[in-house]
Amino acid sequence: MVVAYVLIDTYPGREEEIADKLKSIGGVSELYALLGEYDFIAKVNADSYREVENIVMKRIRSIQGILDTKTLTEITS
Questions:
Q1: What is the domain-level CATH number for residue 64?
Q2: How much is the pTM?
Q3: Which segments in the chain show pLDDT lower than 50?
Q4: C-alpha–C-alpha distance, residues 37 and 25, integer Å
């Protein structure tokens, strides 16, 4: 299991609409609104790094109104 955290920046005023879309994406297990540079942090659970890549690149970043993302992956020992 791979766990990633995706920091998401959106256009102002589109947060509620984007939150609804993010919550419906398979693999997004948690979503929190933030104050500061980023608007949301999404926790993504996947079977592989390739699956994380697909979720972020094809599902999250394709949402209209998302300006920027930064993906952080968990290190497992």
A1: 3.30.70.920
A2: 0.94
A3: none
A4: 23
